[in-house]
Amino acid sequence: MLETHLKSPVIRRRLRAGPAADHIDGFADWLQHCGYAASRIDWMLRCLAGWADWMLASGFSAQELLPGFEACKAALQKNPHVPYSRGANRQALTAASVFIRFLQQQGELPPPVTPPSASDLWPVLGEFRSWMQQHRGLTETTLDIYQRTLVGLCTALGDDAHTYSAEVLRAFVLKRARPHGIQSAKSITVAVRSFLRFLSATGRCPDGLEQAIPGFACWQRSAVPRFLLPDDVERVIHSCSDAPNRLRDKAVLLLLARLGLRASEVAQLKLADIDWRRGCITVCGKGRRQELLPLTQEVGDAILLYLKQGRPSLQVPVVFTTVLAPLRALTRASVTHIVRSALRRAGVKSPINGAHVLRHSAATAMLRQGASLTEVGAVLRHRSPTTTAHYAKVDLGLLSEIAQPWPEVRSC
Question: Quick check: pTM over 0.85?
Answer without folding.
Answer: no
